[in-house]
Each structure stands twice: as C-alpha cells, then as structure tokens.
Amino acid sequence: MGKKSIEERIQEEACFLVERLKKTHERPFDPTIPLTHAVSNIICSVVFGNRFDYKDRKFLAVINLTEENNELFRSFLGQLYNFFPTLMDYIPGPHHKLVKNSEEFKSFVLERVKMHKESLDLSCPRDFIDAFLIKMEQERQNGQSEFNTDNLLRSTLDLFFAGTGTSSLTLRHGLLILLKYPEIEAKVHEEIDRVIGRSRSPCMADRSQMPYTDAVIHEMQRFINLVPMGVPHAVTRDTHFRQYVIPKGTTIFPVLQSVLYDSREFPKPEQFNPGHFLDENGAFKKSDFFMPFSAGKRICMGEGLARMEIFLLLTTILQNFTLKSLVEPKDVDITPVMSFGSNAPKPYQLCVLPR
Prior knowledge:
Blueprint: H1 6-22, H2 32-48, H3 57-74, H4 76-83, H5 85-88, H6 97-118, H7 128-138, H8 149-180, H9 182-195, H10 211-224, E1 233-234, E2 239-241, E3 244-246, E4 251-252, H11 257-260, H12 303-320, E5 321-325, E6 337-338, E7 343-344, E8 350-354
Antiparallel strand pairs: 1-4, 2-3, 5-8, 6-7
Helix pairs in contact: 1-2, 1-12, 2-8, 3-6, 3-8, 6-8, 8-10, 8-12
C-alpha cells in the first residue's frame, strides 16, 4: 500500500512521539493522550497516506469520535447494544451516539476519498484508500464485487475504531507494568543498548535478536487480557464440539481468558512473568496458548499491524527514556479495570527521564 512500508510509517511516528515526550521535561503526565494520538496517526498514515500534526483540529475531532465510541462500547449499555441491537434501538441512552459518531466519521472519510479520486494514479497507490479505489476500478464490471464505497467506509471505520483503542491501551498498560517492575525495565534497556544502541531507530528485524524484550511484550498482552470474552463470532455450519452440537448461525464467544490464564501452560498466570515465554536458555519460547487476537480464520485482521506498533513504539520509548513512577513500585496497582467488553489500566501518571 504505497512506497512507504507500514514499518517506516510506525518508525516515523515513534520519532514524533519521542519528541513529544521530551517536552514533558521530566514532569508527571498521563500517557493516554500521547499514546492514543501516536497510534491513531499510524492508522491515518496507512489509510490516508499522511500523518497529522498533533494539534490539527480535524485530527483531534476524529480522535474524539473514536475515543468516545470506544468508551461507549466498553460501557454496560454499549455491550447490551452489541448483544441486542434491535431491542436497544428502542431504549433511550448514550449508546445511540455510537451510530451518530460513526456517521460523522464517515463524512470525514468521504471527504478524503473524494480528494484521493481527484489525484489517483492507478499504477502507484499511496495508501489504503488508493489501493481500495484501484481494486474498485478493476472490478467495476463485476456486479457482485465486495469492493464498493460502502465497504471502503466500513473497512476504514473498523481500522480506526478497532485499531486505535486496542494498541494504545496495551501500550498504556505495558508502561504501568514496567513502573511496577523496574528490574524488568532495566533488562529491556540492557537488551536494547546491546542490540540496537542509541544511534538508530528500532526495526522489526531487531526482534529476533531480542528474546527478553519479545517475551516481556508477549507477557504484557497475555497478562492484560485486553478482550477477555473475545469478539462474537458465528458458526457457519452445524458443529460438533465435545458432547454438544452447536447449530449453524449460533453466536459464540471465544473466552480468551480461559486460554491466556491456563495454569498448565502459564504457572501462576495471575502473576506477571516474562519467563512464561522464555526457555531454560533464555531463548524466546512460542506458545499455542498465546491468542490475544482471538483464533481461527476470523482472527483480528490488524494483528500484524498491532504487533509492529507495540514492539516499535515500546522499544523506541525505552531506547530514549527511563520510566519513573510517582509512587513506590510496590504500590503501583497493575490490576485492570474490568468490563465485559475489555480491560483497561487504572488512570495513572509517570515521568520519563532522558537516558
């Protein structure tokens, strides 16, 4: 999707994030907004072909829409709307803003699509919208094609609403965990200095040489258990499961927590321990039980992007800064605020000290 790889887009945004964190001048701050803006800007770069200034009014308006919708989805009424949409259409409440916000966001995307059409080069796609428009042109004679404006809008909405909140929440919770365990942060610093150094940006090729950092990130995602109930799916045919038959069309919820917290695979799963993903020689150890992005053919389509974002943004932050807690590490509470839809860290502040 364009001349710039997704990795380059993330690296570019990581540099802007570092500059923004430097401007905190070692003072306490809430990392929610900087992390959310950085992750959202990566999506903007992939979808629209360019990032936005952190103070751009349109960018901030889009962020507010996505953040409000993510909060509404996590709320009790939002979850009821997810389960019983027809019924909840008749019940007043803030959940109705989900549709209103989505329509506002669609208007913003339509404006961008119009701009792309006017400057489209069929031989040189710049971003996701260009790639989609080119496919629409190629399948113009196919009346059954899924490549149409409506699906372009829906796909873009999915990328923003599903992609922004999850990655930024994971990073925010990950930083809180490192405040709790400064000895783990110190080991990650040592690995970054040894493999990457301070003179260049981290890249995905570094990950294979950084087993401890990779294990820490995997353990963060396992421990956080961001979406405990998974995302609702439906079976496409009558399915035999153990002594049960699940009829075709039945909605099912893959309870990811039952796997991510399986004590046979992860001893003492309620404790944060990067050793869950390391063998006796300190090499990274894969686990079939690691499935924070769900499982099967309908696994999260943004898994590859999210894994790149989390690795590159986290290592870039730790390459440049040491994290400082406002309380004693033993008093840092990493217990997530739990809801039926997703888990989130408790609000907190930290300081970042240049290394």
